[in-house]
């Protein structure tokens, strides 16, 4: 089995995940799919002797889900916010917020 990971930016909600999964089920050579709307990506396991990445990509594109290679994760930022370098962070709660808190808020 081969594995293919594709970025599918048009897959932004659960109904898109289901549609992508159903599109990939049309290809008998696809053995497993894992789609994530959060990541905007789909992972496909397929039998390489019966299909190829171009055919899988064409199937998704024909179904209305343009896809491509996933972007590489960027390195974490090196600059830290000012509060991270200041040492101790001190916050206080507003007395009015405390007075209105409880089981029955007074707003």
Describe, in plain words, how this protein is organized in 3D.
The chain is of the alpha+beta class. It has four helices and three strands, in the order E-H-E-E-H-H-H. A three-stranded antiparallel β-sheet has the order 1-3-2, covered by helices on one side. The longest helix has 12 residues, at 14-25. It has helices spanning 14-25, 53-62, 82-85, 95-100, and strands spanning 2-7, 30-36, 41-46. It is 30% helix and 18% strand. It has a domain at 2-62: Alpha-Beta Plaits (2-Layer Sandwich).
CATH domain topology of the domain at 2-62 = Alpha-Beta Plaits
Largest sheet strand order: 1-3-2
- What's the order of the H and E elements? EHEEHHH
Helix content: 25-40%
- Output the number of helix runs: 4
Terminal residue distance:
60 Å
Unreliable segments (pLDDT under 50, ≥5 consecutive)? none
**Percentage of residues in strands:** 15-25%
Give the integer mean of the pLDDT values.
83
Question: Radius of gyration, rounded?
Answer: 24 Å
* CATH arch. level architecture of the domain at 2-62: 2-Layer Sandwich
Largest sheet: 3 strands, antiparallel
Secondary-structure class: alpha+beta
Oligomer: single chain
Coarse shape: elongated
Total beta strand runs: 3
State the name of the first-level CATH class of the domain at 2-62: Alpha Beta
List the topology elements:
Elements: E1 2-7, H1 14-25, E2 30-36, E3 41-46, H2 53-62, H3 82-85, H4 95-100
Antiparallel strand pairs: 1-3, 2-3
């Amino acid at each position: 089995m081969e594995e293919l990971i594709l970025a599918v930016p048009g897959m932004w909600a659960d109904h898109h995940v289901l549609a992508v999964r159903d599109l990939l089920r049309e290809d008998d050579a696809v053995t497993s799919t894992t789609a994530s709307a959060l990541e905007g990506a789909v992972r496909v396991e397929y039998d390489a002797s019966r299909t190829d990445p171009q055919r899988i990509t064409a199937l998704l594109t024909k179904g209305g889900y343009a896809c491509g290679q996933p972007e590489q994760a960027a390195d974490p930022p090196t600059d830290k916010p000012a509060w991270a370098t200041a040492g101790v962070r001190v916050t206080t709660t507003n007395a009015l917020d405390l007075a209105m808190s409880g089981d029955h808020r007074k707003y």
